[in-house]
Amino acid sequence: MNPRELPIYELRDELTEALRTENRLLIEAPTGSGKSTQIPQIVLDGGTAGPGEVVVLQPRRLAARLLARRVAFERSVELGGEVGYQVRMERHVSDKTMIRYVTEGILLRQFLSDPKLKGVSTIIFDEFHERHIYGDITLARALLLQQTRPDLKVIVMSATLDAGPLRDYLAPCRELKSEGRMYPVEIEYSPKRIDFKHHPVWEAAADAFETAIEGGAEGDVLVFMPGAYEIARTVEAIRGRKCAREFAVLPLHGELRANEQDAAVGDCGQRKCVVATNVAETSITIDGIRVVIDSGLARIARYDPRRGIDTLLVERISQASAAQRAGRGGRTAPGVCMRLWTEKEHAARPAQELPEILRHDLAEVVLTLKAGGITDIENFQWLEKPDPLSLERTLTLLTDLGALDHDGNLTEVGQKMVRFPMHPRYARMLLAGQDYECVRQACLIAALTQGRGILERNKGKQTRGQRDDLLGEDDVSDFKRLMRAWVFADKNGFRADACRKLGIHGGAARQVKPLYERFLKIAKSEGLTINTRPPEDEDLQKCILTAFSDQVAKRRDQGTLHCEVVHGRSGDLDRDSMVRDAELFVAAEIAEIEGSRELNVRLNLCTAIEEEWLEELFPDDMDAHKKTIFNPMLKRVVTKRWTEFRGLELDAIFSQEVDEQEAAEIIAAEVIAGRLDIPKWDEQIERWITRVNCLAQNCPDYGIPEIDDEARETMVQEICLGAVCRKDLKERPVKKVVKSWLTPAQRDMIDKQAPEKITLPSGFGCRVRYEPNQPPIISATIQKLYGLEESPRIGFGQIPVVVEALAPNRRPQQKTTDMKSFWANSYPMLKKELKGRYPKHEWK
Fold first, then answer.
1. C-alpha–C-alpha distance, residues 788 and 818, integer Å
2. pLDDT in tens, 758-778
3. What are the residue boundaries of the structural domains of the chain, listed by start?
4. Taking a C-beta distance cutoff of 8 angstroms, is the pair 738, 691 a contact?
5. In 3D, which of 86, 33, 79 has the Cα closest to residue 58?
6. Of 32, 245, 296, 609, whose CA is between 20 and 30 Å from 524?
7. Alpha carbons 424 and 390: distance in angstroms, whole number
8. Which residues contact 812 (CB under 8 A, 6 or more apart)?
9. Per-residue pLDDT tens for 4-40?
10. What is the pTM assigned to this prediction?
């Protein structure tokens, strides 16, 4: 198609005119309208953006390369000349480059070396609706730069977008919209749910392909799969169908060579079936597609708390993403989209993907911002603020890694780390690898921790024995065995039969290799020395410790796998760990489990360390403490001296030399908390206190002081004075201390006005029961109550006593404070009922 026939060209004049007066534009145009290739050319050729380079930000490396190649072809120039691209580890630009396609992190890093972006006239943010974290951050930096460079043009482009929040963020900005030209696409759902565990997704896709082609579908086919492995299996499955003979079945993903990628998007002289990742969802348009087969899956980056980094997980795509994929079938003619899920399942999918800022690890972004002079990260001009806990976790990690000091300022180590295009944890590991002459091993360890584990668990005694024979046993680090296992798999070409013997997952091991090579390439590009000789164990251990110091753990004792972990966590060492006898170690992988009482952590991929290394490597994080405490095992107060590393107690020494006043307060606190008792503080003391409080509460005019919680605490502290252990409380004069709360006159008043007993007319001495916040009560059989015509009163006659009348068997019959009414009304009925049962008792 002639580029000038693309729908986006309807905006050419309006865009050129807008750039004369505006420096912020928001362009909305549907997928396939040509905005990714044509807008940069319109901006450059119009001349209204001013002199300088047009930089186009793309979310994906593959898209950046293919788009640059396409635009270079349209302009009849050599790639790397007027039109070029730059992605991690790959650069095709020159002094002549005027349109430069880059991945989002590239421009953010350019801000570090060139904060004013000299020579850049326009920044175009493509596919902004995908809300990649680097796109958000780079846009914020660009808007900040416009305050001192109003000539800089910022254009934000999207296929579909909730423009409201973005419009407010960009304000003032000019909005342009292209409706595009889309043909209808018929959506077909699977009639029943497909279980990909039993019917692999690639077979389901091949079935759909066969159905479509044998049903007479025209044009080319685009199949969406989550990753390179699934794509390879799908290509194989489709090629095996008879109806695919007239098709060129081609893969498309970022790990392919450039010529293989070009073949997938170019004209190959026959019908083709392209099996692609979601790079073909919005970023790249493939001409001739009229059939879309959608697995409904994508590899989506999310923060993985087990590894403390982002990992790519296969997940179901959102409804919005599915709509984007379906639209690929209606760009040049009416098409069809076959979804490998049911309509009911579709309704249950989320409407949109969460923005990356809300699901990504922020460590690399925050480190880059700090290096760019942004000191107040929390109040940075976020398009969407990250979760405060996530931000706090990130700042803690960067501090633990030594990238930031304890005041949040970038350190010299942090300045070195930011040069590495990788997660800060591994940047720190590679720098440590240089110090300890183990860069090669650091690169392999970094690669091994990215994906799924290569050693399968629970493989039985025979496999474990073969592992021990071929890989050896090592109590230094789980990584040593893991590295040997990977080297074994690599030497055997990752063959399933060889790997199976040792319980090695061949596919997972194979995926480690490109990552390992990439880390080695980065290390070389940053001037690190790749060692050829294996390092000493201690050097490797220290290197690993430097990268994972936020996950240092200590065994509680040798009889348990339970451990304390820095920053107040706890967890269990993996039973299969090779360092299970180590007291102190560092875990490269953790699994956080929310428990009922605390956050538990399962500790895997562990490396033994020594306490003195913590003092050597992290002196600012070591704290010495001294505290007087109650030791529950010894039942005494002791002085505890200990060292902490980031809140993790390393060692402790106990001494019985304590300050007596401080010891008394601690002993008293244990008594008040109910963990210690004072033997002579018995029921008799408690009854006396209740009598005091009864009189104090009911007869306030007589000045009796109430014994409340504060008074009890004061009494306990006085009793405990001079005590340092439980034994010292045995003979304490409790009665003397408690009763001294009142004057002799007040104590006499208690004896008379809140008596322990009341003598009834029958001559029976009846004990008075006092309960907190309840009226006093006496209990007696009816025969002993004869002659009691009035209810008794105590406390200067102000406190009525409740009388509880008992049957001869001492079972309660009635409670009253009105004896006259009792004798007149209740007693005749009780007498009638009880006299027959107890005829030998006196009944008046």
1. 11
2. 999 989 999 999 999 899 999
3. 3-177, 185-358, 363-537, 683-753, 757-835
4. no
5. 86
6. 609
7. 16
8. 779, 804, 805, 806
9. 678 788 888 899 999 999 999 999 887 778 888 999 9
10. 0.69
